[in-house]
Amino acid sequence: MRRLLLIEDELNLARFIELELQHADFSVTVAHDGKQGLGLALDEDWDIVLLDVMLPGLNGIEVCRRIRNHKQTPIIMLTARDSVIDRVSGLDSGADDYIAKPFAIEELLARIRVILRRIDQFEDKAPLLSKSGLTVDEQSRTVKKGGTVIELTKREYDLLLMFMHNRNRVLSREQLIEGVWGRDCEAETNVVDVYVRYLRNKLDEPDADSFIQTVRGVGYVMR
């Protein structure tokens, strides 16, 4: 049975979601404030965390960020705030998906299934990727260069993984945003430039060719 942690301070909504998820054969634990939810998220293993943004004690963006500092547990953010900047803030803090209130429970369940399918496919097929002394172990989500572990944020890791899976293929900024940030993300394309720079700073050696090369007017490629 899949284990879900729901962090939601609206008691009626939390109870409704809990009952619907239990009906769908999930094991659900509920926390009603940010600090309690963060403690549960870090202390136990979960298949997915459902995280409200507006929480007492510690807001959801900060909870998400702190979870990401320690774990790669999938996170779906739940919020009544649906502006572009709110969605981008949630995704940039490390969330895997973002759903605005009010939502149909069928949509939430569908988004949960998408993430669980992705996890199952990842666990079945997780390979060891390598290039010029750079290795990515998809099973442990570990990146090493010359045997030294390179610490990457979730977004940096996902971007690197997309390049590793598409070597010698030129990827546009739009393709990278859709593949890493998600189809519904409305971030500006220059966010890709920012994260490519982050990766280069962590991966490249002085006076050596970059692992990720710029194709002017098109996007980026790892050759």
SSE inventory with pairings:
Elements: E1 3-7, H1 11-23, E2 27-31, H2 34-43, E3 48-52, H3 60-68, E4 75-79, H4 84-92, E5 97-100, H5 105-125, E6 128-131, E7 134-137, E8 142-145, E9 148-149, H6 154-165, E10 171-172, H7 173-181, H8 190-203, E11 213-215, E12 219-221
Parallel strand pairs: 1-2, 1-3, 3-4, 4-5
Antiparallel strand pairs: 6-7, 7-8, 8-9, 10-12, 11-12
Helix pairs in contact: 2-3, 6-7, 6-8
Q: Sheet with the most strands?
A: 5 strands, parallel
What best-fitting shape do the alpha-carbon axes yield? elongated
Q: Strand fraction band?
A: 15-25%
How many domain regions? Answer: 2
Number of strands: 12
Domain Response regulatory: 3-116
InterPro entries: CheY-like_superfamily, OmpR/PhoB-type_DNA-bd, Sig_transdc_resp-reg_C-effctor, Sig_transdc_resp-reg_receiver, WalR-like, WH-like_DNA-bd_sf
Pfam families: Response_reg, Trans_reg_C
DNA-binding region: 126-223
